[in-house]
Amino acid sequence: MIALTFIHAMAVPCLAETFQERIGLCLTCHGENGQSDNVEVPSLGAEPAPFVLIQLYLFREKQRRVEPMTDAAKGLTDDDLRQFSDFMAKLPAPKPPQDSPDAARMERGRGLAQSYHCGFCHNPDFSGRDNVPRLAAQREDYLVKALREYKSNTRPGYDASMAEVTQPISDAEILDLAYFMARAQ
Of 14, 60, 90, 180, which has the fewest CB atoms closer than 10 Å, so is most exposed? Predict the structure, then answer.
């Protein structure tokens, strides 16, 4: 059923005419309230509008290729990009997992976030700002994927800072950072 919904959402973007119809397609994957339940699909609730705008631009211009996003963004105008970005920024922030966190992993992740100065760009509460994404309560699997892509230099960004910052981070540290960030509030 999920696969059929996904296929339908991607097959009809040209049929969606109103903003509400078009944003509904986005929320099919990214979550009705901006909190994704889909593996490796980010939650976009409360993401800073400039960050979302840049990502949509990168998808539209095929500078960042991730299907189905590259295809979904290809016909969007600059005004569309702004409208989608502003909408996502106004959705509620995602909620962290409800499981009881592993205290040792949380402490390791907190220490890594401090030693790598994640709060400098992403804000001390990891809420993000301007063109820097929110990390707090983001999907853990998505954070792992994104950090690995930055480290391997396979994910473009607004600039090269994340590719540089992630170079000294080991895979074990990526797992602990993602665990911590997914549970940060």
Answer: 14
**Which residue is listed with tokens 């100065």?**
117
Nearest to 84 by CA among 28, 43, 27: 27
The residues pairing with 132 across neighbouring beta strands, listed in sequence order, are: 129
pTM, 2 dp: 0.90
What's the CA gap between 185 and 170, in Å, rounded?
A: 24
Please give the distance of CA 24 from its chain centroid, rounded to a whole number. Answer: 18
Contact 119, 92 (CB under 8 A): no
Kindly report, residue by residue over 7-36, the tens digit of the pLDDT: 444 444 555 778 899 899 999 999 999 999
How far apart are the C-alpha atoms of 74 and 122, rounded to whole Å?
A: 29
Contacting residues for 150 by C-beta, under 8 A, at least 6 apart: 157, 162, 163, 165, 166
Nearest-angstrom CA–CA distance, 118 and 95: 20
Choosing among 3.40.50.150, 1.10.760.10, 1.10.3720.10, 3.40.225.10, the CATH entry for 2-90 is 1.10.760.10
- Give the integer Cα–Cα distance in Å for 57 and 31: 21
How is residue 20 written in tokens?
Answer: 């509400």
Superfamily name with CATH number, domain 103-183: Cytochrome c-like domain (1.10.760.10)
